[in-house]
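User: Hello, can you help with two protein structures?

Assistant: Certainly.
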Amino acid sequence: MRGDSHGCLGATCGGRPVCKRENMAIIKEMSFKISSDIENLASFGLSDSSTEKTEITPSGFFKIDGDQYIISYTEESENGRIFTDITVETDRVMLKRRGAVISDMEFCEGAEHASEYSVPPYVFDTVIKTKKIRNKLTRSGGRLDLYYEMNIGGQDKKVRMKIECTPTDKD
């Protein structure tokens, strides 16, 4: 694979390089509260009255690189470990998962992003339509809310993902 030492291929978005890991500073170890409300939709976007609620509280790292916040954590699932990086920029959020789940999702208000969601050996086509990004992150933590519609493997869903970042007290 060609690219820099991090495997990036020199891609840009809006004239900015996508990978900026060279100057990244780790700010704090954090604990996170990550919750999702996923409403399953029937035909024509009508709710089928089932909502999946999940909540995890992993520890990880909160990093700042210029105008980017990077949230990194590991979680355990029934299929193994999942390593997650969430990169928050001024106008978009990228969520990258590796391990027991493999996915690259991009959230940009009003935009649609197609990708794949893989739980080996299964692979599902996904389309994300971002409705709203509410970014209340600061250097000391904070909160990120993502509101989006998702079609995964032909199933329509409405999702609200909340991520709360709290400094871990280390004495």
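That covers the first. Now for the second protein you mentioned:
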Amino acid sequence: MTLASGEDIQFFNNRIINPDTIDGILRVCDDLNIPDSIEFIAKFATADQVYTNPRLPEFMRTTNPLFKYSNVLDIMRYRAIQYIYKYISNNRFRFIACNAAIRYNHLDILKYLHLNGCPLFPSAFIIARRHNYTAILNYLTEYFDRTPSPNTVMLQCTLELPMAY
């Protein structure tokens, strides 16, 4: 087992994560026994390069991460903010990003996505209600109360669904 170098620790502390520094940062995470190291790396990694380390999520190891729905879910799950910034203008990403943020209970990311043009659909209520995400339900209710649409009947039916236990 190779121990992390001083340079590796410096990259880790300064959140300099790119293909050149990734192995060293993983060594630091291993040395410190950080249980959620992949989440840390995904959150701060540079999104404009492809990584080769097999320990990383697929969306970081491919040139077209939006090709698979599961990659968009992982971008949200890991709160990979650099990837969110990169793909916010992509229609495929925008179409599913809000529901994916709701699925992982990331209200702050949901608000960012919505304010930057990602659409909210009535199905968002179903996801939030299923998991009993109260803050997200409040946000969605406020939004849909301000913007009446033909989906009002569907929303009322959704709100009457029982909470998940």
